[in-house]
Amino acid sequence: MAIYDPKSLTAEEFINHEEILETIRYAEENKHNLPLIDSILEKARPQKTATGVHCAGLSHREASVLLACDIPEKVEEMYRLAEEIKLAFYGNRIVIFAPLYLSNYCVNGCVYCPYHAKNKHITRKKLTQDEVRAEVIALQDLGHKRLAIESGEDPVNNPIEYILECIKTIYSIKHKNGAIRRVNVNIAATTVENYRKLKEAGIGTYILFQETYHKQSYLELHPVGPKHDYAYHTEAMDRAMEGGIDDVGLGVLFGLERYQYEFAGLLMHAEHLEAVHGVGPHTISVPRVKRADDIDPDVFDNGLSDELFKKIIACIRIAVPYTGMIISTRESQAVREKALKLGISQVSGGSRTSVGGYTEEERPHDSEQFEVSDQRTLDEVIRWLMDQGEIPSFCTACYREGRTGDRFMSLCKSGQILNCCHPNALMTLAEYLVDYASEDTKRVGMALIERELEKIPRENVREIAREHIQEIYHSNRRDFRF
Ligand code: SF4
Ligand code: SF4
Q1: Does residue 464 carry a pLDDT above 90?
Q2: Is residue 218 located within the same domain as residue 328?
Q3: Nearest ligand 1 atom to alpha carbon 109
Q4: Of the N and C termini of the chain, which has fewer Cβ atoms inside 10 Å?
Q5: Mind listing the pLDDT tens digit for each residue in 123-145?
Q6: CA angle, 287 as apex, 281 and 293 as ends, to 5°?
Q7: How far is ligand 2, taken at its centre, from the CA of residue 465, in Å?
Q8: 115 Cα: distance to centroid of ligand 1 (angstroms)
Q9: Which pTM was predicted?
Q10: Is 4 part of any domain?
């Protein structure tokens, strides 16, 4: 039997089945243990330090106790704490991104995804470089600066050389005032050598969802293809980091397995990265299984209610305060609205989840990877965020300034990153408003920028940001950053 060891490089030791079961048992036993719950909440509270605010975070066991706790006042306290942590580290800024699907050719058999190899009636498509160019121009014309590229796994149709060529094309396109400044990559687990190539291509975050941490379920849900190899998939982030990628993004597909199991596994994975590489995950995504071409989410009997989903988001926020959290257009406007307050720091907007979707006039429903619940345009999403009191941010500054990995985390933990995030959010929002927004969004956004400029504490930073924003409004100069 494998022994739990967060420092091990063997999947079944750092994601240890027995330890997860023991954690769930411990959480169940203690879910009404008020002194313990209070001490866990106390430990997680933000503390003022000489340089800013510090949060201790929680272990997977402590966080699992909070997740299990169903005492209404304590749950309310968790929500308030999650909101407090969110505000302390991310303020009222929300970073915007869009997915770009390159190819839906796939040799795997994931039973929850319509791109699985056995689906013979879905249209298979792989973008040519000209089509990548057209999609990227369409995305730039919407106002996007940050993309997450997505591709099925197919060594013949989508080899690493194809992915690298697409990244090069994406970064090379300068259209009007637009530019894609950060390409995050969500492709199948691969070798250290290929991760090194991705690093050299200048990617931002490497994202790979575990789907489920439960090995037996994993094997059943991925019956064929290279993804069937649980250890190879689970150990991918270690290879990515060995290949020089500093920022990695975790996620599970909630609904496939018991949420308590996935939650503990996810946090154990974060602890493992911290223990081995000295830096935890850059982001955590929280997708839920959705309807798609030949996929019926109801066949998976671990579906989550919206209420539970909210609690999971809050508990992740409390446990790993320095990790960005992402929610996509899989979720409806109403769910996204609640999630924003509880810890989400990045959202997608105006997304198309099919290959070639941005250049199609109508949203193509028959070849989407999942049904998009939030179908609003990017302009509507930006306007909505501002109405919620949030600042939509198109900032991509950190990795372009070399602030990645442990350098990023130490700036984050000392609170110094806040001196960059706020002015960068306002300057990139100003770019969006003058170049892409509707008149109404522009009017609301400009007023918001005026108000938010006043909140920049350091006078010199405030004045520089103000000057740059005026330059953006009155000239074609772009891409200012702190
Ligand atoms: S989830 Fe990814 S690997 Fe699995 S079938 Fe879909 S595209 Fe292929
Ligand atoms: S300054 Fe860095 S951490 Fe802050 S929003 Fe920009 S990229 Fe993100």
Answers
A1: yes
A2: yes
A3: 5
A4: N
A5: 999 999 999 999 999 999 999 99
A6: 140
A7: 15
A8: 6
A9: 0.97
A10: no
